[in-house]
Design goal:
InterPro entries: Peptidase_M8. The chain has 429 residues and is of the alpha+beta class. It is 29% helix and 18% strand. Strand 11 and strand 12 form a beta hairpin.
Length: 429
């Protein structure tokens, strides 16, 4: 009996208590950074405030100091001759000068994460579509990142045409916290090789799976109605983003929709699992995530044929059913004969209301790349559907590499689908 009590007392002394606080981000910005459009700075501030309600962070008992070495490895802002400003966005909202030459004490400054804002002109100029990018600074032992860098491209013409600035900063802040950028200590299924089948040909491709996705996989199985789904497919071998083709307008795909991007249980669960060591780093507000998850329509109940097989196999499996988000062979024949005629797609709401939309089939000559990250080679519409060989579409493609050259509905890949009701599913018209 005495031995048992003594053992329990010893165990109690080594248990570490979790201490959680709302994510409280400060920005460190150089004085000479190019002026950004007002909507950019306003949305950045709005996201930082919103994330206080969405994400909580583990507070570790160790030194909350971000060392000069970490800052020096992460950003050029550590230099003593750089004039810097620290912006806080909590109830003590303030802005004042700060010196990073000896490091940064998060506790003393009343925050638990610091984002170093900078402009990397080389990277911005090399990618004419880049608006921003982010990554965590180096880790100290098994403690979550205390800081990250945010690279902003100050090209006003790019920002002017982009509507989803709010979602962009949500996306980049998750990367700064470590989403898709932390290597796990161990991994389960990392990838799968399979055949991408067409009507009379096939290609061998390879899909990579996201790390830290055990819980996310359970939700994805329910969302896609595919109980045998083996992993959360990543865009490429870097595993930084979810697959654009599979997850569409989920917040953590590589190409953000110009309309709404949803922070669902998929990416929230991956963030919650992201850690090194035994202690959890992040928690998300499940009630707020649920609201966005319910509105996430892309992929809902599309089945294993969509998420694990080729688009041709998916279309073939939908006999007497809608082939959304794709056009089928008959749709494309109609497009070749009557280019202006729309394709009708219907959604059924959870209240029984039938909503009808007029969409159009996509067809394009030019491609940004002829191979997708999975290794899939470009294939024309007539190679996918032999009946199109004599049509005007014979040498055209259904989409670009990011959508695996599949015959997508134009409004899907051009971000023109809005106002789909919560929990609505695609049905035959």
């Amino acid at each position: 009996m005495y031995t048992r009590i003594f053992t329990e007392l010893v165990l109690l002394t080594i248990v570490e208590c979790d201490h959680w606080e709302p994510l409280n981000v400060a920005l460190v910005t150089p004085k000479d950074i190019p002026r950004l459009p007002a909507k950019v700075t306003e949305e950045m501030r709005g996201v930082i405030l919103e994330m206080r309600s969405l994400i909580s962070v583990q507070i570790f008992d160790s030194d909350p100091m971000i060392s000069k070495t970490v800052i020096k490895q992460c950003t050029k802002l550590w230099k003593p001759n750089v004039d810097l400003y620290l912006d806080r966005f909590d109830e003590m909202e303030s802005s004042h000068s700060v010196d990073l030459s000896e490091g940064f004490d998060t506790a003393r400054n009343g925050v638990n994460f610091v984002l170093f804002v900078q402009v990397n002109y080389t990277r911005c100029d090399s990618d004419n579509g880049l608006l921003a990018s982010a990554a965590p600074c180096s880790l100290s032992e098994n403690i979550r990142p205390l800081s990250g860098r945010l690279n902003i491209c100050p090209h006003e013409d790019r920002w002017r045409a982009f509507k989803a600035v709010h979602d962009l900063f949500r996306h980049e802040l998750l990367h700064a916290l470590g989403f898709g950028l932390i290597l796990p200590e161990s991994s389960s299924i990392k990838s799968r090789k399979f055949q991408w089948n067409y009507s009379d040909r096939k290609q061998k491709i390879k899909s990579e799976y996201m790390d830290f996705s055990k819980v996310a996989l359970n939700f994805a199985r329910r969302h896609f109605a595919c109980s045998g789904l083996r992993g959360i497919e990543a865009e490429d071998a870097d595993k930084t983003h979810l697959s654009e083709y599979i997850f569409g307008n989920e917040l953590m795909t590589p190409i953000l929709s110009n309309e709404k991007n949803y922070f669902t249980f998929i990416s929230a669960s991956i963030l919650e699992e992201t850690k090194v060591g035994t202690r959890q780093w992040y928690k998300t507000n499940r009630m707020l995530i649920l609201a966005e998850t319910k509105s996430y329509w892309y992929g809902r109940k599309w089945g294993c044929e969509f998420v694990e097989k080729s688009c041709t196999e998916y279309i073939s499996s939908r006999t007497n059913q809608s082939t959304f988000p794709f056009c089928n062979e008959n749709d494309l024949l109609q497009l070749s004969l009557y280019p202006s005629n729309p394709k009708m797609v219907c959604f059924l709401t959870n209240t029984g209301q039938l909503l009808k939309f007029d969409f159009h089939c996509n067809a394009q000559y030019y491609l940004r790349a002829r191979t997708s990250p999975t290794g899939l080679k470009a294939i024309t519409l007539s190679e996918q559907f032999p009946s199109l060989y004599a049509s005007k579409l014979a040498k055209m493609y259904g989409s670009d590499y990011i959508h695996r050259f599949c015959p997508f509905i134009q409004e899907v890949i051009r971000d023109r689908i809005v106002n789909i009701p919560e929990s609505a599913i695609v049905v035959r018209c």
